[in-house]
# Entry
Amino acid sequence: FKYQMEKFDPSSITVDFSKEEICLGIDEAGRGPVLGPMVYACAYWPEKYSEDIKKHFKFNDSKQLSAEKREKMFEDIKTHSNLMKYKIIVISPEEISFKMYKREKVSLNDISHDAAYNLIKSALDENVNITSVYIDTIGPPEKYEQSISRRINNDKIKVIVRSKADKLFTCVSAASIAAK
# Structure
């Protein structure tokens, strides 16, 4: 007798985001003043479904996908809000310029760190039980990781910042798709 896994059916799953252990990925698109707004997004779901989500939806770094494929995947994220959620922050070129050129300048890295923190805080404010955060780096990964960890100030949340995180972690790939 051979063990057979149940088929993963994302539509049939109901998640209590306040009780499940949730992984949250963050990525950005755009570069601000010269190229338009900078868009930060997060995508999150229960850790225990990460592999099933990866296999079923085949999320990938948004730069590797056609616009049509990205749109379809973004629709999948929105359609399956019972299983996964997303949030978006849009930072206008004017806001970026204002912060970077005022007397007490704010670097683009700091603006990025603030956006990432605000996405995490927004989910925490909704009682999402985040246990791990994966972020595609802007600037030195160690500094970014320390900055976010210090601001979250919660030992139960593991923060991992990596270069090319959108290729390494499915929740960052989904965030990459939402940001585009």
